[in-house]
Predict the 3D structure of the following.
Amino acid sequence: MSNSHEITLSLKVVRFDDISHEELTELLSLSPTKTHKKGAPKNPGKPEGPTRKYNSWIYEVPCEKSTPFEIQLAHLLDIIESRIEAFKILSNQHILEIGCVLYLRYDSNESIPSIHLDSRYRDILKEVNFEFDLDLYCG
Protein backbone atom coordinates (compact mmCIF):
# COMPACT_ATOMS: atom_id res chain seq x y z
CA MET A 1 0.00 0.00 0.00
CA SER A 2 1.20 3.49 -0.86
CA ASN A 3 2.21 5.84 1.92
CA SER A 4 1.05 8.88 -0.07
CA HIS A 5 -2.10 10.78 0.72
CA GLU A 6 -4.86 10.19 -1.84
CA ILE A 7 -7.61 12.43 -3.19
CA THR A 8 -10.56 11.30 -5.28
CA LEU A 9 -12.88 13.97 -6.64
CA SER A 10 -16.20 13.17 -8.26
CA LEU A 11 -19.29 14.77 -9.73
CA LYS A 12 -22.56 13.16 -8.66
CA VAL A 13 -26.26 13.27 -9.36
CA VAL A 14 -28.01 11.52 -6.48
CA ARG A 15 -31.43 10.54 -5.15
CA PHE A 16 -33.32 10.71 -8.42
CA ASP A 17 -36.26 8.62 -9.61
CA ASP A 18 -37.61 10.62 -12.54
CA ILE A 19 -34.71 10.20 -14.97
CA SER A 20 -32.66 7.16 -15.98
CA HIS A 21 -28.90 6.78 -15.77
CA GLU A 22 -28.84 6.63 -19.57
CA GLU A 23 -30.83 9.88 -19.87
CA LEU A 24 -28.39 11.61 -17.51
CA THR A 25 -25.46 10.34 -19.55
CA GLU A 26 -27.07 11.64 -22.74
CA LEU A 27 -28.07 15.01 -21.23
CA LEU A 28 -24.56 15.61 -19.89
CA SER A 29 -22.70 14.03 -22.84
CA LEU A 30 -20.50 12.42 -20.22
CA SER A 31 -20.03 8.76 -19.35
CA PRO A 32 -20.22 7.99 -15.65
CA THR A 33 -17.46 6.12 -13.86
CA LYS A 34 -20.14 4.20 -11.99
CA THR A 35 -23.85 4.17 -11.29
CA HIS A 36 -25.93 2.79 -8.45
CA LYS A 37 -29.51 1.63 -8.77
CA LYS A 38 -32.00 1.97 -5.95
CA GLY A 39 -32.72 -1.44 -4.42
CA ALA A 40 -29.57 -3.10 -5.82
CA PRO A 41 -27.24 -4.83 -3.34
CA LYS A 42 -24.44 -2.59 -2.05
CA ASN A 43 -22.14 -5.60 -2.33
CA PRO A 44 -23.02 -7.67 -5.43
CA GLY A 45 -21.21 -10.64 -3.86
CA LYS A 46 -23.73 -10.60 -0.99
CA PRO A 47 -27.17 -10.11 -2.54
CA GLU A 48 -28.84 -10.77 0.83
CA GLY A 49 -26.98 -7.80 2.36
CA PRO A 50 -27.96 -4.14 2.51
CA THR A 51 -29.32 -2.50 -0.63
CA ARG A 52 -28.85 0.93 -2.19
CA LYS A 53 -31.30 3.46 -0.80
CA TYR A 54 -31.25 5.68 -3.88
CA ASN A 55 -30.06 6.03 -7.47
CA SER A 56 -26.78 7.76 -8.19
CA TRP A 57 -24.76 8.69 -11.26
CA ILE A 58 -21.06 9.29 -10.57
CA TYR A 59 -18.21 10.68 -12.66
CA GLU A 60 -14.76 10.46 -11.05
CA VAL A 61 -11.94 12.71 -12.20
CA PRO A 62 -9.59 10.57 -14.32
CA CYS A 63 -6.42 11.65 -12.47
CA GLU A 64 -3.89 9.90 -10.31
CA LYS A 65 -5.02 9.95 -6.69
CA SER A 66 -1.88 11.93 -5.86
CA THR A 67 -2.99 14.80 -8.12
CA PRO A 68 -3.59 17.94 -6.04
CA PHE A 69 -7.16 18.88 -5.18
CA GLU A 70 -6.96 22.18 -7.11
CA ILE A 71 -6.05 20.39 -10.37
CA GLN A 72 -8.83 17.83 -9.97
CA LEU A 73 -11.33 20.58 -9.13
CA ALA A 74 -10.27 22.59 -12.19
CA HIS A 75 -11.00 19.51 -14.32
CA LEU A 76 -14.50 19.18 -12.83
CA LEU A 77 -15.20 22.88 -13.22
CA ASP A 78 -14.17 22.69 -16.89
CA ILE A 79 -16.73 19.92 -17.37
CA ILE A 80 -19.45 21.84 -15.53
CA GLU A 81 -18.78 25.09 -17.41
CA SER A 82 -18.88 23.34 -20.78
CA ARG A 83 -22.31 21.88 -19.88
CA ILE A 84 -23.63 24.69 -17.70
CA GLU A 85 -27.14 24.77 -19.21
CA ALA A 86 -27.66 21.04 -18.63
CA PHE A 87 -26.42 21.36 -15.04
CA LYS A 88 -28.74 24.33 -14.43
CA ILE A 89 -31.70 22.22 -15.54
CA LEU A 90 -30.60 19.30 -13.37
CA SER A 91 -29.93 21.43 -10.30
CA ASN A 92 -33.47 22.80 -10.33
CA GLN A 93 -34.92 19.31 -9.81
CA HIS A 94 -32.10 17.07 -8.53
CA ILE A 95 -29.33 16.91 -5.97
CA LEU A 96 -25.94 17.61 -7.52
CA GLU A 97 -22.83 17.03 -5.50
CA ILE A 98 -19.10 17.39 -5.77
CA GLY A 99 -17.63 14.64 -3.65
CA CYS A 100 -14.11 14.61 -2.26
CA VAL A 101 -12.60 11.57 -0.59
CA LEU A 102 -9.34 12.27 1.18
CA TYR A 103 -7.19 9.42 2.53
CA LEU A 104 -4.53 10.63 4.93
CA ARG A 105 -1.69 8.21 5.62
CA TYR A 106 -0.07 8.27 9.06
CA ASP A 107 3.24 7.11 7.60
CA SER A 108 3.34 9.73 4.83
CA ASN A 109 6.18 12.23 4.71
CA GLU A 110 3.96 14.60 2.70
CA SER A 111 2.20 17.62 4.14
CA ILE A 112 -1.58 17.39 4.55
CA PRO A 113 -3.27 18.25 1.22
CA SER A 114 -5.23 21.49 1.16
CA ILE A 115 -8.86 21.68 0.10
CA HIS A 116 -9.43 25.17 -1.26
CA LEU A 117 -12.62 26.28 -3.03
CA ASP A 118 -11.70 29.36 -5.04
CA SER A 119 -13.72 32.11 -6.72
CA ARG A 120 -14.24 30.03 -9.86
CA TYR A 121 -16.09 27.45 -7.74
CA ARG A 122 -18.09 30.22 -6.06
CA ASP A 123 -19.03 31.72 -9.44
CA ILE A 124 -20.36 28.38 -10.68
CA LEU A 125 -22.35 27.98 -7.45
CA LYS A 126 -24.13 31.22 -8.31
CA GLU A 127 -25.54 29.48 -11.40
CA VAL A 128 -25.80 25.84 -10.37
CA ASN A 129 -26.64 24.45 -6.94
CA PHE A 130 -23.97 21.91 -5.94
CA GLU A 131 -23.51 20.36 -2.54
CA PHE A 132 -19.95 19.65 -1.41
CA ASP A 133 -19.30 16.40 0.43
CA LEU A 134 -15.92 15.74 2.07
CA ASP A 135 -15.13 12.27 3.41
CA LEU A 136 -11.92 12.08 5.41
CA TYR A 137 -10.18 8.79 6.22
CA CYS A 138 -6.97 8.32 8.19
CA GLY A 139 -4.86 5.23 8.29
